[in-house]
Amino acid sequence: MSFIDMSVAVKHIVQGYLCRDKGRTVRIRLQDDRAFITIKGKAREGGFGHFEWEKEIDPSEAHQLLELCEPFLIEKDRYIVPNGSTIVEVDVFRGAHQGLVLAEIELESEDQPYHRPSFLGIEVTGRKEYSNAYLSKHNYTMNFTTSDLEQLAARGISVEAAEKQMESFRKGFPSLEISSAASVGNGILSPTPDEEKEFLAAWDKYLAENHTILKFVPASGAASRMFKNLFEYMDGGEETDFVREFLGNLQRFAFYGELKQLMDLKQVTDGRAIVRLLLEDMQYGKLPKGLLLFHKYADGPRTPALEHLVEGALYAQNERKEVNLHFTISHEHYQLFEQHISQHKSEYERKEGVHYNVSFSEQKPSTDTLAADKDGHPFRDKDGRLVFRPGGHGALIENLSEQRADVVFVKNIDNVVPDRLKEPTVRYKRLIAGVLVALQSKAFAYLRALDAGTADLEAVAAFVERDLCCKLQDKSREALRAKLNRPIRVCGMVRNEGEPGGGPFIVKDRRDGSLQCQILESSQIEDKSLMQSATHFNPVDLVCGLRDYQGQPFDLKKYVDPLTAFISQKSKDGKELQALELPGLWNGAMSDWNTIFVEVPIETFNPVKTVNDLLRPQHQ
Q1: CB-based contacts of 455: which residues, under 8 Å, 6+ apart?
Q2: C-alpha angle with apex 448: 442 to 449, nearest 5 degrees?
Q3: How many other CB atoms are found less than 10 A from the CB of residue 201?
Q4: Residue 316 has pLDDT above 80, yes or no
Q5: Contact 410, 544 (CB under 8 A)
Q6: What interhelical angle do 477-484 and 422-452 show, nearest 10?
Q7: Exposed, middle or buried by CB within 10 Å (0-12, 13-18, 19+), for 210?
C-alpha cells in the first residue's frame, strides 16, 4: 500500500522565504485557505530541533508577501499518514521541484522510539540540500534516482556537491591569466652562499625549539605503470630495447635476490617467464611503489618507504629526537604498509638514533568525483549505477589539513636516492625549510604589529611584494592582513633539463588582481609558448607552514581554487566518459597560499617512472 492510500488528509501548500540568513529563516506559507508567517532559528547539532515562532496572517497578505520571496516558490501536496503513535508528513513537490518527495516524522525528543514505514527511503536528516530554505534558492532537477542517492550517501557526497560536479561538465572551467614563467630574479630565489648559511642556521634553530615537524608522503600510487613495457612483453609483445635492457641487467636490481630464488626454485630461464615471476609471483605488478625494493645495501635492500624513514631522521627530527611521518595510501594496501613499517621501525630507530611516529591515511571517498557522458549527464555502468573516479592527488588537501604540525615537508614516495647520494637532498631540504621559517617569522611579526596598530604599511607591502613574491593591487591594511595571514609554502625548483613535471609561473589572482607564484601543469596552460619559455620545473619538493600567527591551524580547504579543476577524457567498458580531476595538491589546491620558489640542484630530483630508471646511477 502506498503512502497516498495510507493517508487520512492532504494539504496543498505554497511557501516562500523572505529571509534565509545563516541561523534564521522567515517563511511565508499558504496552506489551503489559511496563511502563516514563521520564523525559525538554527537547527541543533545533528539536525534535530530548532527555535520556531509562528503567527497566522490574512491570505491576501500572504499572496503579496510571496511576490517578495526568493526565486523558487515551493509548491507541494502534504499527505498526512498515521504511523502508530506518530504522524508522518509526506511532501510531494510540484513546479520547480517536481519529482522530489520528502517525509518527516515529528518526534517529541531525539530518542523517542518510532515505527519506520516501509515507504521511507534514505535518511537525509541534517542535510541542507533537502531543506525548504535551500530549495527556495535552487531548482530541483531529478538527475538522481533513489539508488543514486544511496551511492552518494555511502561516499559522503552531498547532492549539492554532486550537482555542482555535473554543472562543471556542462560549463567547463575558466582559463588562468598567466603573466610569465618564473625565473631567477622573477619569482625564483637563488640564495647566495652567505644567505644559504643564514637559512640553514634558521632551520637548525627552529628544530631546537618546541615545534612539531612532519614529513608528508603521498604514496597511494600503484607501481603498475612502472612495468607497462614488461606487461606488454609478458602478454606476447616483442622484445624491445627496453625489455632487453631490463633482462640484461637483472643482477643490478635490488629485488634480484628474491627474484633469483624464485628462478632457481622454478628452474626459470626464459625472459617472459622471468617477467611473470616478478609481476605475478612477487606481485610487483600490483604492489604500490612504496613497497618495492629500490636500492641495494650491505645489510639488505630498501624500499622507498624505508628511504623516507632515513631522510626524515636527517632533516626533520626535533630536539626530542622524534621523527613524524605520514603516508597517504590506498585502502587495498593499508595493511601491507602498516606491516612493512612495523617490521622495520625498531631496526631503523636503532640505526638512526631516533623515535619514529608513523601514521597513515587514505584518500577520502567523499573526494571521489562523478563521471559524465559526452553530454554532461551522469555516466552509468552496465548495471545503471553511477560511476565514480578518484579526484586525483588534489583530494589529499583534506588529509594534509588534518595533520596537526607546524611545518610539513611534502615529497613523493618515489623521489629517493641511496645514502651515498642523500647529502644534496638533505642540505636543500634544510635550506628551503630555513627560508620558510625565516619568512614566516617576519610575517607573524608584521601581523602582530597590524593588530597593535603600529605597523608601517609601506614596509609591510614591501615585504609582501619583495619577499613573498606577490605584486599587490590593493595595499590597504585589510588587504595586507589577508595576504600575510594564510598558509605558506616554499617550493624547490629545478633547472629545466627535459625532465617531466609542471612548472613555476606568475599568475594573476582572479579575486583581487594581484600577481603571485603558482605551480602549473601543462593542462592548465593554453599558450604553450609559455611552457617553452620556462627555465625551471616542479620536482614536488615542498615545505609548508600550516599554522597562523596565533598558533591555530589553517583550514586548508578554504585556500583551494575550485576553478582550477580540469576535465579529462577516459573510457570504461568501451564507452567514452569525462572525468573531473580536482585541483592538484601543489597546484590549485594551494592556489591561495603564499608561495615562494627557491632554486635547487637537479641532484635532488630522482623519480622512478619505469623499472629501468632503477638502473640509473642515482639509484645504484
Answers
A1: 446, 449, 477, 480
A2: 90
A3: 13
A4: yes
A5: yes
A6: 150
A7: exposed
Active site residue: 17, 315, 356, 428, which one? 17
CA separation for the pair 250, 268 (Å, rounded): 14
pLDDT tens-digit readout, 43-54: 655 555 567 899
CB contact at 8 A, 325 and 317:
no
- CA 129 to CA 125: how far, in whole Å? 10
Provide the strand spans (E) within 64-144.
Answer: 74-83, 86-93, 101-105
As a whole number of angstroms, the distance between CA 59 and CA 418 comes to: 81
Determine contact, residues 555/565, Cβ cutoff 8 Å.
no
What pLDDT is attached to residue 46?
52
Q: What is d(CA 314, CA 307) in angstroms, rounded to the nearest whole number? A: 11
Position 142 pLDDT exceeds 60: no
Question: pTM score > 0.90 for this model?
Answer: no
Please tell me what DSSP assigns to residue 280: I
Which of these, 242, 223, 267, 585, lies nearest to 399 by C-alpha position? Answer: 585
State the pairing for strand pair 470-471/322-329: unpaired
Cα 478 from Cα 455, distance rounded (Å): 12
Q: How far is 165 from 616, CA to CA, in rounded Å?
A: 43
Q: Which residue from 318, 384, 307, 398 is spatially nearest to 357, judged by alpha carbons?
A: 318
**CA Rg, the chain, in Å?**
29
DSSP string, 481-543: HHHHSS-EEEEEEEE-SS----EEEEEE-TTT--EEEEEE-GGG-S-HHHHHT--EE---EEE
- 158: closest CA among 126, 121, 110, 120? 126
79 is catalytic: no
Per-residue pLDDT tens over the stretch 71-83? 788 899 999 999 8
Give the type of residue at 219.
Answer: A
Say if CB 597 and CB 393 are below 8 A apart: no
Q: Which of 431, 448, 408 is nearest to 556 (CA)?
A: 408
Q: What are the backbone angles phi and psi of residue 184, rounded to the nearest 5°?
A: -60, 125
d(CA 378, CA 578): 10
The shares of helix, strand and coil residues in the chain, as percent rounded to the nearest 5, are 40, 25, 35
Residue found by looking up cell 630495447 in the block: 241
Whole-angstrom distance, CA of residue 560 vs CA of residue 592: 6
Q: DSSP letter for 455, please.
A: -
